[in-house]
């Protein structure tokens, strides 16, 4: 039976001058449409098994709903059947060059550092936390082409698909089912392409960061990469975009991806600025204080399906400040109706 291997978790070709710990890989095997991890995660010595469940939940309006397929189905009203789509927007884990500043001096791609070991550990922990708390399945994962984001995505999906030793439930949430999840690289989720986000001393002189989709996809598990996806951004953004332009890029991309897949819940792995925009687009008077590594927010909106035609409600920001590694403050008497994407 074919195996599902986490290919190039820490790519040798992209990080040839890294310490040995960053060259280790993990294996995950596909069995009867389930997902069983038969490998150890580094030296833990524990086996992880996938678990899959259906989560029953109560919406904010107290209408009972059940997770069927991808989104939570609710009642049928004048606008048709209503379901709820969730989008989780997350920052990558710790980057290696922040821990080893000398790494960039000899790196082939100093503007594209890999994930550090603390970042890998944080991604594992975040995956476990999501698995226990989300309450809905993730069906599509979109990733920035930067190496630290690709590596965060691989570790996170592996963690989402696992249970604790002994096979017992670790919470009431829903785990990712890798036999059904699809992962894609999206240029629009990339870092701000300017000297504020990419240090001038490491940026290429011609401004060409040289990202190749096929090369990025080779870092991901081959069996879950969606090679047929139509990307929102066909090309990598040009060097020199302003902070405002990057903000508009993130804002429109979140909505465009959600609109393309209205019956699926999404996980977007991006950079700190992308998470900030996810908050500020819905809380326009919010002051974002901090986005920690692997910090994330959850957005949710109603989807109305009448006669096979979808209409979309407004997104709402469900994540309170300081609960998931994202800290923001609101002025007194905040108007919570000020929530919309373009």
UniProtKB/TrEMBL annotation:
Lineage top rank: taxon: Eukaryota
Residue stretches in coiled coil: none
InterPro entries, A to Z: His_Pase_superF_clade-1 (IPR013078), His_PPase_superfam (IPR029033), Phosphatase_SH3-domain (IPR051710)
One family name in Pfam for this protein: His_Phos_1
Annotated protein name in UniProt: Phosphoglycerate mutase family protein
Organism the protein comes from: Vigna mungo
């Amino acid at each position: 039976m074919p195996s599902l291997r986490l290919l190039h978790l820490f790519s040798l070709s992209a990080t040839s001058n890294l310490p040995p710990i960053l060259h280790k890989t993990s294996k995950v095997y596909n069995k009867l449409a389930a997902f069983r991890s038969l490998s150890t995660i580094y030296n833990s010595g524990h086996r992880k098994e996938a678990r899959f469940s259906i989560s029953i939940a109560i919406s904010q309006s107290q209408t009972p709903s059940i997770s069927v397929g991808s989104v939570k189905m609710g009642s049928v009203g004048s606008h048709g059947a209503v379901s709820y789509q969730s989008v989780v927007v997350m920052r990558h884990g710790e980057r290696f060059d922040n821990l080893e500043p000398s790494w960039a001096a000899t790196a082939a791609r100093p503007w594209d550092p890999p994930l550090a070991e603390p970042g890998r550990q944080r991604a594992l922990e975040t995956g476990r936390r999501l698995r226990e708390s989300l309450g809905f399945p993730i069906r599509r994962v979109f990733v920035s082409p930067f190496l630290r984001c690709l590596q965060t995505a691989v570790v996170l999906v592996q963690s989402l698909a696992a249970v604790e030793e002994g096979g017992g439930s670790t919470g009431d949430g829903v785990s990712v089912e890798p036999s059904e999840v699809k992962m894609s690289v999206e240029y629009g989720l990339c870092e701000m392409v300017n000297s504020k986000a990419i240090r001038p001393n490491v940026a290429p002189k011609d401004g060409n960061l040289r990202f190749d989709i096929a090369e990025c996809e080779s870092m991901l598990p081959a069996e879950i990469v969606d090679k047929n996806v139509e990307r929102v951004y066909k090309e990598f953004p040009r060097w020199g975009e302003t902070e405002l332009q990057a903000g508009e890029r993130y804002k429109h991309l979140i909505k465009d991806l959600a609109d393309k897949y209205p019956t699926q819940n999404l996980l977007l792995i991006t950079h700190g600025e992308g998470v900030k925009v996810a908050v500020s687009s819905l809380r326009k008077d919010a002051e974002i204080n901090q986005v920690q590594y692997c910090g994330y927010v959850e957005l949710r909106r109603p989807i109305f399906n009448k006669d096979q035609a979808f209409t979309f409600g407004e997104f709402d920001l469900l994540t309170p400040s300081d609960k998931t590694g994202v800290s923001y403050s609101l002025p007194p008497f905040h108007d919570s109706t000020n929530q919309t994407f373009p």
